[in-house]
Amino acid sequence: MQFLCPHCQAPIYSRKQKICGVCEKSLPPELLLSEKQIAILKKQDEQMEKRAKEFQLPDSDYGSDVSGIV
Ligand SMILES: [Zn+2]
After folding, report:
1. Between 11 and 31, where is the model more confident?
2. What residue numbers bound the domain in which 9 lies?
3. Which residues surround ligand 1, an ion (CB under 5 A)?
4. Do 25 and 7 form a contact (C-beta atoms < 8 A)?
5. What is the Å distance from ligand 1's center to 19 Cα?
6. Terminal-to-terminal C-alpha distance of the chain
7. Each residue of 20-51: pLDDT tens digit?
8. How many domains does the chain have?
9. CA atoms of 16 and 38, how far apart (whole Å)
10. Ligand 1 centroid from CA 61, angstroms
11. What is the 22 CA–ligand 1 centroid distance (Å)?
12. Quick check: helix, strand or coil at residue 32?
């Protein structure tokens, strides 16, 4: 589902922004994420990042050939 700015019809790429990036008019709250939704997304992001970091932890067995490239 794509959200469009009601003022200039530009697609809204980030629903965390309170103003349109094109016409800089304020966006209606129903188009935006609520504080609660942002908090949930942030938590999910953090968990994903944490998981990614754990996955990328240098491992003495599997990390040896990767470090050769870098
Ligand atoms: Zn706009």
Report:
1. 11
2. 1-57
3. 5, 7-8, 10, 20, 22-23
4. yes
5. 8
6. 39
7. 999 999 999 888 888 899 899 999 999 999 99
8. 1
9. 7
10. 52
11. 5
12. coil
Q: What is the pTM of this model?
A: 0.51
Ligand 1 centroid, distance to 4 Cα (angstroms)? 8
Alpha-carbon distance 47 to 55, whole Å?
Answer: 12
Cα-to-centroid distance, 40 and ligand 1 (Å): 26
Residue 30 inside a domain? The answer is yes
Structure tokens at 42: 């942030």
Confidence of residue 16 (pLDDT cuts 50, 70, 90): confident
65, 45 contact by CB (below 8 A): no
Distance 35 CA to ligand 1 centre (A): 21
Compute the distance from residue 31 Cα to the ligand 1 centre, in Å: 12
